[in-house]
Amino acid sequence: MRGWLALLFAFVATALSVAETRPASGNPRQEFPDKLVAAAIERTNHSVKYVSDYVHLDYPGGDVPADTGVCSDEIIRAYRAVGVDLQKEVHEDMVKNWPMYPAKSKWHQKHPDPSIDHRRVPNLMVFFSRKGESLPISSRAEDYSPGEIVTWDLGGDVPHIGMLVSVGSKESGRLLVVHNIGQGPKMEDVLFRWKLTGHYRYFGPPPHGSH
Q: How confident is the model at residue 28 (pLDDT cuts 50, 70, 90)?
């Protein structure tokens, strides 16, 4: 009997030791999207005037004045809050893969510009599809998850961008989207309000040294 008790105590002690060293979340892959969603929701606490003017930015880590911005700036700020600088990531990819981006054909640029390129939705669409995952565009709300990016055409080839978060609409049950369409960052049930043009998942660049 004593032998069985000794084995039982040893098993329990080993299990407790393993549990203490395990990450609290139990799912490291979920940590980044959880933090990204929290950062996007936090953006809705800020008062931001919709200003689309060209602004010369520092590089890297540059941003327009905190109380101004467009739809893409809210995505940029959410990612930057969790350690991903889209200004740097987009610029570096555009330098290496300039023909793959619409900057030359759409805005007649002759070379990448780190002050504006990452703030343009069509560029972000190319970047997310290249460096993240381009997901199917679906009319089913259950096909979308928190932390994913969606883009729309508002009409007249005017693009828009937002991020799905983990809060559901009380009316429709759909995930809400953090976006800025002119009234500052809001969390609203707008997933299917306009024509969807893109659906992406991007959880940052791979760790340094990984392949």
A: low
